[in-house]
Amino acid sequence: MAAVRYYLDEHIAEAVATGPRNRGIDVLTLSGAGMLGASDREHFAYAYEEGRVLVTYDDDFLRLADQTEEHAGVAFAPQSRSIGELVRGLTVIAEEMEAEEVEDHVEFL
Asked: Measuring CA to CA, how many Å separate 74 from each of 15, 21?
């Protein structure tokens, strides 16, 4: 079973990556992936190809998840969530689930 790995959408503060990383969780930011300026579909495809759960506030990704047979998973949060709440939610998912359990699912933070 593989560990959950994350890919943060451009709207998620890079500070959100720090907490999970400090706990040994693999987090890749959009800028770290060199994906600035890519379309939502490109981000979604990249996350799938890399086996990373896409972390986002953008409900367009909920539609993409609904329209796509296979994806690595989406961790969706309302914009009202604080950085601390996001870090806690992402940490719980990574500590309690395997990557295979998140595939093709949307986890709400």
From this structure: 19, 18
